[in-house]
């Protein structure tokens, strides 16, 4: 086996996929391979793909084809495709993209070392596993900046939304044990992590399968008891599973950041039923109201789908009205993507692509006004900001407040008083907000 070979990685899609990439990196590093960030130096490149919606599939395929160019024009010896695209289209990848040398399904960390060895020996390789038995956890090479990390607390999904292929790709919902998660949290703390982002396809379902009850509140509490990580953030909490216990823990525990990501997808009861979402519009409104009543300063993020089959103008108008009323602090939207092998694929009254795009534009324009209003209300206020670095070109520091998750939310740009000590990435700073620029905030550090 050529252990001097250099391995490159392209990791696409969500943070959950990134954690899978980090697990594969650890296995390859343990096997003695050198990991390189320079694709032009790599002997083998592994593309960890996403296939959630059509645009993600296109991005995955484009990246594979970009890597294939290196195989023809540089010293690249092989391409391995893993992740969601590999799992979903296992029978087609070798045929459709012949440049690919190995395909490894979900849970691919088990055989990634074997896949690399085969490719280096010029042998085509494929391996798939029982998704329900794929590894949960394991050693990782953390690729996020030192101060922040994702911690995957469960795999798969049981919600069976009609538009979503995730259960087909990743299998049913499976929680990791608290002991396993806390051990990993301690490892991340030892690496210097200041912000721990708990993730799963449905974080709020955590524990139901192994403890018989929703256990996210207890897990978050134990992480703050058994580590000293300053910020613990909860992502992807579904509105039907936001328990009073979870709200109370967020309210009373100062190290659980006052931020909640609640993907609601829609507010029309007719559309929610067609989506097979759990609960109705009354439940969604109640969840938002309960959270805000208990934690008035909380930042709420949501995700919406516009253009779902059968969505009438009246349904869309209801959604627009709710966006105006609820005034979510952060909001992302998608146009409905018609995914084969999902129940919604065959629903009647599919919406025209231009109508979908028009509805998306209307929603996002409305949210832009809400975000501007929310940001203006922060001018003159003091925020605790996690510094992420210094922009040499703009000569200004940048970071995030409690209300901003990594990669998807607002940035805070700030100056440092003349003569003050340089601020390091991962350091917490008090910042007075002085103005807003688009979705971002600008201020000055105070000492």
Model description:
With 447 residues, this protein is an alpha/beta fold. Among the domains are: 6-133, Rossmann fold (3-Layer(aba) Sandwich), CATH 3.40.50.12160; 144-261, Transcription Regulator spoIIAA; 382-446, OB fold (Dihydrolipoamide Acetyltransferase, E2P), CATH 2.40.50. The chain has 14 helices and 19 strands. It has helices at 15-30, 54-73, 84-88, 93-96, 112-120, 166-170, 178-190, 208-211, 216-226, 244-252, 269-275, 281-294, 313-326, 353-376; strands at 6-11, 34-35, 44-49, 78-83, 102-104, 125-127, 148-152, 154-155, 174-175, 195-199, 231-234, 256-261, 299-306, 330-335, 382-391, 396-401, 412-415, 428-437, 440-446. The protein has a 6-stranded parallel β-sheet with strand order 2-1-3-4-5-6, with helices on both faces. α7 runs parallel beside α9, α9 runs parallel beside α10 and α13 runs parallel beside α14. The longest helix has 24 residues, at 353-376.
Distance between the termini: 56 Å
CATH topology of the domain at 6-133: Rossmann fold
Structural class: alpha/beta
User: Main beta sheet, described?
Assistant: 6 strands, parallel
Shape by Cα distribution: globular
Measured by DSSP, the beta-strand proportion falls in: 15-25%
Question: Cα-atom Rg, whole angstroms?
Answer: 23 Å
Tally of DSSP β-strands? 19
For the largest sheet, list the strands in their spatial order. 2-1-3-4-5-6
Uncertain segments: none
Number of helices: 14
Query: CATH H-level name of the domain at 6-133... which superfamily?
Result: Methylthiotransferase, N-terminal domain
**Secondary structure: helix percent:** 25-40%
The CATH class of the domain at 6-133 turns out to be Alpha Beta
């Amino acid at each position: 086996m050529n252990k001097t070979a250099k391995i490159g990685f392209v990791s696409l899609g969500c943070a959950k996929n990134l954690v899978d990439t980090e697990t594969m990196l650890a296995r390859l590093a343990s096997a003695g391979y050198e990991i390189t960030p320079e694709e032009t130096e790599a002997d083998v490149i592994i593309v960890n793909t996403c296939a959630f919606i059509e645009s993600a599939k296109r991005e995955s395929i484009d990246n594979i084809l970009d890597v294939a160019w290196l195989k023809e024009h540089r010293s690249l010896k092989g391409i391995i495709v893993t992740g969601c695209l590999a799992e979903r289209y296992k029978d087609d990848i070798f045929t459709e993209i012949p440049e690919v040398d190995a395909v490894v399904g979900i849970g691919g960390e088990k055989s990634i070392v074997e896949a690399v060895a085969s490719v280096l020996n010029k042998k085509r390789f494929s391996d798939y596993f029982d998704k329900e038995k794929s590894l949960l956890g394991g050693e990782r090479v953390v690729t996020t900046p030192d101060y922040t990390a994702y911690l995957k607390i469960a795999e798969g999904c049981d919600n069976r939304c009609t538009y979503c292929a995730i259960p087909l790709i990743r299998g049913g919902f499976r929680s990791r044990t608290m002991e396993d998660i806390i051990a990993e949290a301690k490892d991340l703390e030892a690496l210097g992590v200041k912000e721990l982002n708990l993730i799963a396809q449905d974080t709020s379902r955590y524990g139901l399968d192994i403890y018989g009850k929703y256990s996210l509140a207890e897990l978050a509490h134990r992480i703050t008891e058994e580590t000293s990580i300053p910020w613990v953030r909860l992502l992807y909490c579904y509105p039907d599973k936001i328990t009073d216990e979870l709200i109370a823990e967020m309210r009373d525990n100062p190290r659980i950041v006052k931020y909640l990501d609640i993907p609601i997808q829609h507010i029309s009861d007719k559309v929610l039923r067609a989506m097979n979402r759990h609960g109705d519009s009354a439940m969604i409104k109640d969840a938002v109201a309960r959270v805000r009543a208990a934690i008035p300063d909380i930042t709420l993020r949501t995700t919406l789908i516009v253009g779902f089959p059968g969505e009438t103008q009246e349904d869309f108008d209801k959604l627009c009205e709710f966006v105006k009323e609820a005034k979510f602090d952060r909001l992302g939207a998608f146009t409905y993507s018609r995914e084969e092998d999902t129940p919604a694929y065959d629903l009647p009254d599919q919406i025209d692509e231009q109508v979908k795009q028009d509805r998306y534009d209307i929603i996002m324009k409305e949210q832009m006004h809400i975000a501007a209003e929310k940001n203006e209300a922060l001018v003159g206020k003091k925020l605790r900001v996690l510094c992420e670095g210094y922009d040499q070109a703009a000569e200004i520091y940048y970071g995030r407040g409690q209300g901003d998750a990594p990669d998807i939310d607002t940035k805070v740009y700030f100056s440092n008083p003349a003569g003050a000590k340089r601020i390091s990435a991962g350091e917490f700073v008090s910042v007075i907000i002085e103005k807003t620029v688009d979705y971002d905030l600008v201020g000055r550090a105070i000492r």
